[in-house]
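Review this today:
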Amino acid sequence: MESMKYTVLLVDDEKLDQRLTIQALAKVRFTQRIQFKVETAETLSEAIRLLGEKSYDVILLDLGLPDSQGLASVKEVRTANLQSPVIVLTGLADEELGLEAIKEGADDYVIKGDYLEHVLVRIIRYAIKRKEVEEKLRRANEKLKEDDELKNEFISMVSHELRTPLSIFKNVISNALAGVFGQMSRKLRDNLDMMDENVDRLGRIIDNFLDISKIEAGRMEINRLDLNLSTLVCEVVESFRRFAEDKGVELQGVNPEAELIVNADRDKIIQVLTNLIGNAMKYVPARKARISVYVKDLGNEVEVDVEDNGVGIDKDDIGKIFQRFTRIEKTAAETHGTGLGLSISKQLIEMQDGRIWVESTPEQGSTFCFALPKSKTKEQSYNREKQDSVV
């Protein structure tokens, strides 16, 4: 059976310690069939030079060198070589220093004088094995990142390709419903209405996949400006008015009279509000359905609440409600969607330094809330105006 071979860089200026270390490693050649090829360096600068010229399986590093002392040596070696495990050699009185060295990047330490060959060899082999495992994990993680980027590119490409035929379908259906192609039967109109609704739903699904791929790839753009959140909420609530009436839902918006200015991306906030109100529409009861949208002044923040009297969310589901592809099981058969809307909303709010959460009681309803910091520019302007009025 062929013996395993390891190359070792021993960085130590004490000749006696060098000899003891080399002897300890040599003793295991026949007992454990392990062979160590040891090269020595007596200064940190010499060790750095050798590390630049070749690679080693392990580095044994003394912390008291002529040109470097203590933890600085570990940092220098780690900077010069990230791959090889570093084992610190320390005196009995400096055991605490050995522990500190591990915090600075060393893989282990051994106390001089404890050079029983099996102890030293075990520490070396464990350190090498740990590095091998870390390297495998690093490569696997890089492969996962590459696969994730390819997935995002694929989703983005497919989504863009789907948008063109979808737009054509939408235009043809809209023209037909507008009577461009002449009169049609009631049955055909009903079918076209159903097609139109499903084309819109497919468009929302495509938009969700595009948003997720942009967010994960770090390509989602946030264009922030000062805006009155109270006014914006009123606009979005009004855009749902007719849909709510058709569905028999009592929809109301309750906003303070004062301007509540936040620095945020208008389109992204509309997207979040549309998702939260649209989500509430899915889960309110068939009769006496109610959705209320509140805007609150929290001092340094502005909070928006979307409250419904729907089915509510079980306690076990609240913790995962903002995760991707999560849907409430007890009503999933009655609704359509990808389960991406809330996850996208959470990330859009957090990208604007905000926070989002949900409060819910099963069978009584849910309140989805998000808060955004007030605009500092507006606040500074207000403070200046206040100071001027005092003067």
The radius of gyration is 33 Å. The chain has three domains: 4-115, 144-216, 225-379. Confidence is low (pLDDT under 50) at residues 381-391.
